[in-house]
Amino acid sequence: MWHKTWILCVFIGNLSTSLQAESKLRWEDCVWIGMERSGSLGLENVRSEIFPILTRDKWKQYLPKLGVHYFGIFSKNQEQIDQEYRDVRLQIQQLLYDGGETEREKQKIELRRLIHSEDKKLLKEKIFKSISLSYLNFNKLMLVDLLYQLRAERYRLEEKKREKESELGLLAKGELGFLKIWEVEFQSKKIHSESAKKLALLELKQAMSLDSRMSLFLEGGITETIRLFEPREIQTSDANHPVLKKVRLQMELAELEEESLENDWKPKLVLGGYVGKNGNLGFPLQNEIYGFSLGVQANLGGTSFQSNTQNGIQSEGNGIQRIPGYGPQPVGSGENAFQSGSIGLFDDMGRNKKVFESKMSVLQAKQDWKQSDISFQNQIQSVEIKVIELYGKYNLYLNNFKSNLFQLRSKREERKENLISELEYLKSEDEMFLGMETLLDHYFQYIANALELVLLLGENPFENRYYRLESKQFSSDLNDILDVWKERTHKKNSKTNEPKLINKYPFLMEESYESR
Q1: Residue ranges per domain, the chain?
Q2: φ and ψ at 92, to 5 degrees?
Q3: Where is this protein chiefly located (predicted)?
Q4: What is the model's pLDDT at position 51?
């Protein structure tokens, strides 16, 4: 963890110029940098900040609402007595009962937060997969390009041979510059290999959100750091994968929406009160006033009902009582009160439609959950079949290549003893070259498909049942083959250990508050 954090700090600090050569990056470093620089992921992190705000707002429904209210009337008309009235009061309202709607709204916000959290995990997996596949593809094309460079060295031997034959008069001068069709195809593939490697590097930079002009240096020897394991049959799948968990949460949210609609008949009770002063002689105000109110609101099958009761006391003098729907009414000293009520008959004509749509949303959410589970399990099995196939092909080509390589080494000795011609040896090596390219393709296809399966199963993408990213280099079959090709000392393979199964779900996909 500290190693990754240090690499990330060094990397971010040098982004304005270029990546320094000494900061060679491994697979996991590329992923962390890409995650840090992802604009879409940063936007989702900002969006997640709205949910605590919405939750706090809903909590405020339980708190009393305070307010200061001022009311004044002034009348100075001809042939009438001048009037002046001012009213200042402190008002308070408290929700007593709402049928549990506020609590349900809080639960809806929490469910939406959890859905957003799963969406963010899916986005992280998408970014992780994009960077990883680009990283693997670039490494594959680097090795393929290396093979073409090694093959080009052998190819130059053929050119020297023809020049020698031309000098000895064994080859016509007109044929010296003539290229055979297999030589043209080889040069064409070599040019294509160089271009493909450059394009793969640009693709990796784009996946990591890096400018194309930035220098990027990767640590080599990928085939010496990834240890492959034989695929084993999957016993259990991950029921808490973000795809499945998201549809379950959406189903819970739809059921909660239906529950809210079914309980909207329950009344809302609001208790209020006020205390203040009024007067007719300007400030300071002379008369004390106070009172309380009770409001009821309900929805009865599309018919709304509202009722309000207010009782107040005017200590002395005259005051004004403001009655909703009737305007200000003069009152004298002593007790004063009013009651009001209204029934809106079928004023919510679309309620039946809302009820129907709510039930349909629940049914659709349940259907989506079942279908997602089926599709998810089928996807796991299809990828598993592909992984097993690729591993079998990789081992088949690997064993065949080892056998052919042994024969090639024999031909190499025969060539040194002049038992066979250089051209005959080059043709044998050319067949090996094509086989090596196919072997590399199956090697990286296996890792790429295994990575997809690992993400579906919720396992660590760097250490799982299909492969393991080692912290130190080890002797691998592919590197032994390349060493033999380069005529280096053949190394003995190290023993392959069984994979260690670790905790589910990649650690870098979850925030500290998230679980799966």
Answers
A1: 24-50+108-252+355-509, 64-97+268-300+303-347
A2: -140, 140
A3: membrane
A4: 94
